[in-house]
Specification:
It comes from Leptonycteris yerbabuenae (Lesser long-nosed bat). By secondary structure, the protein is mainly alpha-helical. Helices cover 61% and strands 0% of the residues.
């Protein structure tokens, strides 16, 4: 669900960087 939330984020790639750090331990 981590990756899905990033895709829904209007900022897209920008939010992806922040989410990637939070979801680093999860399989995307």
């Amino acid at each position: 669900e981590c990756a899905k939330r990033v895709v829904r984020d209007p900022q897209g790639i920008r939010a992806w960087v922040a989410w990637r750090n939070r979801c680093q331990n999860q399989d995307l």
